[in-house]
Design a protein that fits this description.
Blueprint lengths: L15 H19 L6 H8 L3 H8 L2 H8 L6 H7 L8 H14 L1 H14 L3 H22 L5 H22 L9 H17 L7
């Protein structure tokens, strides 16, 4: 007797919404683990248990699949609005808590890892990272608190967060990987605060 689970289903599967979400979930995992270049449509299809043609039917190209799978897991405007009532001297604490919350959430953290891992080889991923984290989130935060050189300060914060994603979610360096979220946020907060409000050395 042939085991129907031994081979992926062929053609269109019942329940299109469910199938689409299965493909997206498989794509997030593949992009997070392998990056953009090393992830193929066929690999995503195998992980989702569907025919590769179905992946193309739903998403067209790998670039389009990536864009759908790793859409940033928060609205930057909402984050900036939440910081309105935060005292200037505690902005680093609040931002650090937010970023660690994203990083330690299974779904959001997986998307963040996929974006960061893929940004080195995919222009699309690099654009998502640059425009969303820097231009739409961190630059407005720096401008909101009246910081000088807001773009530089935003990029410094982004460098800290991206490095944290790489070491904790992509490379898996211990003890950073298993550090409790509360302690990780507490360690990160002073650096974020210094980057946003501390004095910067003068340009040479």
């Amino acid at each position: 007797m042939v085991n129907p689970a031994a081979n992926p289903a062929r053609g269109r599967r019942p329940g299109p919404s469910t199938t689409r979400e299965q493909i997206l979930a498989a794509a997030r995992t593949q992009f997070a683990e392998h990056g953009f270049e090393r992830t193929s449509m066929r690999a995503v299809a195998r992980a989702a248990g569907v025919d590769a043609k179905l992946v193309s039917h739903w998403f067209g190209t790998k670039d389009e699949l990536f864009a759908a799978a790793v859409e940033i897991p928060f609205d930057p405007a909402d984050v900036v609005a939440l910081l309105d009532a935060v005292p200037r001297e505690r902005i680093g604490e609040r931002l650090a808590g937010f970023f660690v919350g994203v990083l330690t959430d299974p779904l959001a953290g997986g998307r963040a890892a996929a974006i960061v891992r893929s940004a080195a080889t995919s222009p699309g991923a690099a654009t998502v990272l640059r425009e969303t984290m820097v231009q739409r989130l961190l630059v407005p935060v720096a401008q909101h608190i009246g910081a000088d050189e807001p773009e530089l300060r935003a990029e410094l914060v982004a460098s800290q967060v991206v490095g944290l994603v790489v070491l904790r979610r992509v490379v898996g360096v211990e003890p950073l990987t298993s550090l409790p979220a509360a302690r990780l946020a507490a360690v990160l907060a002073p650096t974020v605060q210094r980057y946003l409000t501390g004095p910067l050395p003068p340009a040479p």
